[in-house]
Specification:
about 400 residues; Nucleotidyltransferase, domain 5; alpha/beta; 3 domains; Arc Repressor Mutant, subunit A; 5-stranded mixed sheet
Length: about 400
């Protein structure tokens, strides 16, 4: 005779789960009534009212008035939303020569962002001190009470062991296996996380961006400037970030022309450009920012540069599109400011290199955070950890 297994639940764990469930429903709906919370969470009335009281006492939610009464009349239900000022998250994108930093409130809104010019390429100790400087600076600039900070996530290009907080390899420093978390975790009162930059961008798009309501998509982080050209892929599968067995999923390291090489290729045609004709004798004054602006203004040669570059990007990314068959590809990084100007050549190249059944269902979009996409994504990882349902208890 088979015996039935009996499961027991820790009451505090169940309570914690119900609180996080309710908090997530409020977050996802922005403003929601207590009666809607009962329906959406499938919890009974007394449980919801108890949870709302608890979350309100913790200052995590605030009442915003009364909703409409039902057709049967009765008491109008209270309306609830997150208390945006309850907690904050910091995200930092580490690059050679600078760090981009942001602070998000509890709703995911950016309340402070800045770019700090710092030297990070000499050794680990100098890198750590630069990171500490940037974290302290953006906290000071924002005026936020440090006690309200949930955590800080620091994003790097290259391979990052997220679980142990180790930068396995990166172009920022050429040392291998940088024990970055060990160097930072005792320097602040809040937790420190370390993540790959493309993964961070993907998490940001899932949390508050173009991938918010999507479960299978790819984020393409494009680095393109005078001496730099590279791609990083962040992969969301079934709603979760996919890092790979050795945390190297999406690390392509393709051979791509940088902006200087692209300029050299088309320089003989500068006289044909309505703006670039003035740079025939001074191409060294060009960078990606002013070329983006020229392309927006319709300069034919600037448009040609991004058409050629976008085509190359599309060719490189096409095998990954064929392999994973995502429903959406989101372009991030500074170059995403171009919108359709960069999307069109990428899309055309993908269509030329994958099956029509794959490309016809693929949507390509530009992320909204552009140069700050990695930092916003890093901060989003802190928020997503805070809101994560404690499923391990079930």
């Amino acid at each position: 005779m088979k015996t039935r297994k009996h499961f027991t639940f820790d009451p505090s764990a169940v309570k914690g789960y119900h609180e996080k469930l309710t908090l997530n429903v409020i977050r996802e709906n922005a403003i929601v009534s207590s009666s809607e919370l009962i329906r959406l969470t499938n919890l009974n009335k007394s449980t919801i009212f108890s949870i709302l009281k608890e979350l309100s006492c913790k200052s995590l939610i605030v009442s915003t008035g009364k909703g409409e009464a039902t057709e049967k009349g009765g008491v109008r239900p209270s309306l609830w939303q997150l208390n945006a000022e309850a907690y904050y998250a910091i995200g930092i994108d580490v690059e050679i020569g600078e760090m981009t930093a942001v602070i998000l409130d509890l709703t995911g809104k950016t309340i402070k962002k800045n770019i700090y010019k710092v030297d990070v390429s000499n050794n680990l100790d100098e890198l750590v001190e630069s990171i500490i400087f940037v974290i302290n600076s953006i906290i000071s600039d924002s005026g936020i009470d440090e006690g309200k900070i949930l955590g800080c996530c620091i994003a790097f290009t290259g391979i990052v062991d997220y679980l142990r907080g180790i930068v396995v390899m990166s172009g920022v420093l050429f040392n291998l296996n940088l024990q970055l978390l060990d160097k930072l975790k005792h320097r602040f009162r809040f937790p420190i996380l370390i993540e790959n930059n493309a993964n961070a961008a993907a998490i940001g798009e899932k949390w508050i961006g173009e991938g918010k309501n999507k479960n299978n998509f790819m984020v393409l982080l494009i680095e393109f400037d005078i001496s730099v050209a590279g791609l990083g892929i962040g992969i969301i599968l079934e709603g979760n970030i996919y890092r790979g067995a050795s945390f190297s999923a999406g690390e392509l390291y393709p051979h791509m022309p940088n902006l200087r090489q692209m300029i050299d290729m088309v320089r003989p045609r500068f006289p044909e450009g309505k703006i670039l004709k003035d740079y025939v004798s001074s191409p060294e004054e060009l960078d990606v920012k002013n070329l983006i602006e020229m392309a927006r203004q319709g300069d034919e040669i600037a448009l040609l540069i991004f058409k050629m570059f976008g085509g190359k990007v599309g060719e490189i990314i096409a095998p990954s599109i064929a392999l994973l068959n995502p429903d959406t590809l989101i372009i991030t990084g500074t170059i995403s400011e171009l919108g359709q100007i960069i999307i069109n050549p990428i899309e055309n190249a993908i269509q030329m290199n994958v099956l029509a059944v794959t490309s016809n269902t693929l949507k390509i979009a530009a992320g909204k955070n552009q140069q700050f996409s990695v930092a916003v994504g890093a901060a989003s990882l802190v928020l997503s950890n805070f809101f994560k349902l404690p499923m391990s208890n079930y």
